[in-house]
Amino acid sequence: MAEKLMHAVQCDSYGGGAAGLKHVEVPIPKPSKGELLLKLEATSLNPVDWKIQKGMLRPLLPLKFPWIPATDVAGEVLDVGPGVKNFKIGDKVVSMLNTFKGGGLSEYAVSSEDLTVSRPPEVSAAEGAGLPVAGLTALQALTYHGGITLDKTSPSPSPATNILITAASGGVGQYAVQLAKLGNVHVTATCGARNIDLVKSLGADEVLDYKTPEGAILKSPSDKKYDVVIHCATPIPWSTFEPNLGPKGKVIDITPGMSAIWTSFVKKVTCSKKQLVPILLYPKANNLEYLVGLVKEGKVKTVIDSKHPLKKAEEAWAKSIDGHATGKIIVEP
Ligand SMILES: NC(=O)c1ccc[n+]([C@@H]2O[C@H](COP(=O)([O-])OP(=O)(O)OC[C@H]3O[C@@H](n4cnc5c(N)ncnc54)[C@H](OP(=O)(O)O)[C@@H]3O)[C@@H](O)[C@H]2O)c1
Fold first, then answer.
1. If you average pLDDT over residues 132-145, what whole number do you get?
2. What is the rounded CA–CA span in Å between residue 291 and residue 296?
3. CB atoms within 10 A of CB 101
4. Angle 252-123-89 (CA atoms, 0-180°, nearest 5)?
5. How far apart are CA 98 and CA 109, in angstroms?
6. How would you class 39 by CB atoms within 10 Å of its CB: exposed for 0-12, middle for 13-18, buried for 19 or more?
7. Of 52, 59, 48, which is closest to residue 13 (Cα–Cα)?
8. CB 206 within 8 A of CB 221
9. Are 19 and 314 in contact (CB under 8 A)?
């Protein structure tokens, strides 16, 4: 019997940007042991998707082509593979697909049960799909690496009080601002002039336009020294961060270049009180579940930059490459 086909968008080689995406009809994948077949309702893009296409991560993990990009999805369980315990056909879910296998720019995708969580009716598919890479990175940067407790009533409140979040209008930054404000912290944020009101509405206490002289030197308008910086913008030299840090200030860098990696090494071996910590997201289902719960409770929202039909996925791709999204870019089958 002929296999059922689905519409998908794939790359046949590295490079090419939006023009490198090809619309194809391919067989609907089948779930193996511990996997779910999802009918996708929304997929969000992340800069890492086009960075992989560009070959920037090729030395670490080379791609197998053809490759259907994107990992952050929300949808409905259509079938389950052997051994799946926690999900059944018809369940609504949010899932993070394997970074290098991808699969999100399509009508159906196979996800691992281990990185899939339930999605309650209060959380729309687009809001849920925004969460995996961007939400998990913001959460882990603040809590694991920044040591911040996201609970104002905690018996052991965060020692860090002043935080700087750069690129607070981006996919990661918008979640970082909202999550940080669940804790007992003062948030200074940077973004472009057009997004200042939005970032304030997400909870930032003070906002710097990164294109002004004050924004460029990251100086807090109220003269605060930062205990923790969640750095989500393009690389900024250590000499710019250093004078703005408190005595034990820590820069958590989610976009480290070679210079930041070197600075991090030097700060570590010299036992400097001020540290630079490059980080990589570690996908964890319990963290994703926590984030979905916060969206359900209305404590965090997904700022949506734009929604694009799968048929025009290349427009969404080009927008992500452009680097000026406000929140998350969503593709819908
Ligand atoms: N380490 C990890 O595991 C990890 C995980 C997730 C993401 N990342 C990386 O983190 C970076 C941010 O990701 P994202 O999803 O948030 O990106 P994004 O959504 O594409 O960020 C775009 C936003 O950044 C703002 N922006 C750009 N340069 C800025 C600057 N110098 N100062 C302040 N705002 C600036 C833009 O504002 P304007 O439009 O006004 O310019 C835009 O609103 C990417 O490089 C991504 O690859 C790393």
1. 98
2. 9
3. 15
4. 110
5. 11
6. middle
7. 52
8. yes
9. yes
157 lines ligand 1 (CB under 6 A): no
Q: How far is the CA of 171 from the centre of ligand 1 (A)?
A: 7
Domains of the chain, earliest start first: 5-130+302-332 (3.90.180.10), 135-278 (3.40.50.720)
Share of the chain above pLDDT 90, in %: 93
3-state SS, residue 172: helix
Scanning 196-284, the segments in alpha helix (DSSP H) are 196-201, 213-216, 238-241, 258-269
- The residue count for the chain: 333
- For residues 161 and 187, the answer to whether their CB atoms sit within 8 Å is no
Pocket flag, ligand 1, residue 137 (CB < 6 Å): yes
CB 74 within 8 A of CB 122: no
Distance 304 CA to ligand 1 centre (A): 14
Q: Is the pLDDT of residue 156 over 80?
A: no
Distance CA 253, CA 265 (A): 13
Q: In which region does residue 207 sit, left (phi positive, over 0), alpha (psi from -120 to 50) or beta (all else)?
A: beta
- What is residue 160's predicted lDDT score, i.e. its pLDDT? 66
CA distance 40 to 91: 12
Which among 128, 164, 297 has a CA at the least distance from the CA of 241?
164
End-to-end CA separation in angstroms for the chain: 26
Nearest CA owner, ligand 1 atom 4 = 254
Helices (H) and strands (E) in the chain, counts: 10, 15
Eight-state DSSP code of residue 142: I
Rg (CA), the chain: 20
Does 42 have pLDDT greater than 70? Answer: yes
245 CB neighbour count, 10 Å cutoff: 23
